From TrEMBL:
One of its GO terms (biological process) is DNA replication termination. This is DNA replication terminus site-binding protein. Keywords: Cytoplasm, DNA replication, DNA-binding. GO terms for cellular component: cytoplasm.
Amino acid sequence: MSYKFNLRSQFDSIMLMTNELIEELKQLESPYCSFYHIPPVLTKDEQTIRNEIIIKPYFADHAFNQCCQSLTHVYREHEHSGRVLNRYPGIIAVNTQNPSDLINRINQINQAKLAFKNMILKIGNNDSRFEAVHNAIPNVLTLAVYRQIHFEQNKPFSVRFTWMHKHSIKTFTKAEAITLLKNSENYGVTNKINAEAWRALVNKELHRVSSLSDKEKLRIRRPTPVSPQVNVRFDAKNRYHVSAALPFILINPSEDVKLGHLTDYYKKETDPRTIKRESLVERLFLQRY
């Protein structure tokens, strides 16, 4: 069978189970529900790091509806970035006499999502994967389908939100960095710089990296957009955090559980004591390790 058929079948299975989960949640008592709308990043702004994010909170029935809808938000919307995906933080607290049934449903969905991801990763290179996925499921946001649904059933002391700053880090040898730069000669930003100026820029970068010791360790430390996370705490030593890309499901919570709110994000001023590393290639965030 073709990739197209397999991917579409697996995707349809995920969406069917997710909709069944939503219907199950609607049948349960929900003592608390929150949802925090984050303004989406537009395609024209996806290269810009946001210094502030003003959220809009919802609670009770309105929040519940928003949370349920977000579980199936996997298609790209007009003018919204396909690279910087929107997050849908929230908490759905539910009471059920059969928690194992609900947990099994969520685990089935998460396993199906992992299977979908593994099917895609077995397809050639990135270009082949993109073509195969979008031929099977036009306009889908692949990473949005991958998102796991997180839950907790063991009565934590608190469930709160924070904003997380992350960096994508990849290490290189000098030779690997030179190969990367040579390959980049073929991918100039044609709308901002002409081919001759681009080659001159890359040659200057190559000269800078070539002058390093062969034993020099290098890395690309690229900042990623700030994102919300859920912090689950049982006691001082027993805690964990997970992504808040989707609403967090809290099963049979205790009546006195502490539930936090996601607040607006404002980028903090850089600590003057922070040592800033000089980039060897600023556009690639390439620096000495």
